[in-house]
Amino acid sequence: MDFDRESYHDLAIRLESVIMALEREKNDVLIIAHASVLRCLVGYLFDQDENETPFISIPRSEVIEVTPTAYKSKDRRLKINE
Question: How many domains does the chain fold into?
Fold first, then answer.
């Protein structure tokens, strides 16, 4: 069977409207998503090279708190019990 696989680039394009909405949001937002979606969002928020996006660490045992600032986002990774 031949399956079409969506690349990270394709996924990032599909997430464009979500990213724009997040940038306009003034309140806290909790995002629960598949690891590939989270990698794309983290890669965008931290201006990572698109070739590095598939390798961003997204452990299931962590919550990633992202705080936007004037020049660069800050992150804090919080361990949770499994």
Answer: 1
Indicate whether 2 belongs to any domain.
no
| Residue 62 β-bridge partners | 79
CA proximity to 45, closest of 25, 13, 23: 23
Q: Give dist(CA 41, CA 59) in Å, integer.
A: 15
Per the CB < 8 A criterion, the answer to whether 67 and 74 are in contact is yes
Biggest CA-to-CA distance, the chain:
48
Task: Quick: pLDDT tens for 43-81.
Answer: 999 999 989 999 999 999 999 999 988 888 899 999 998
pTM value surpassing 0.90:
no
Of 60, 8, 14, nearest to 36 by C-alpha is 8
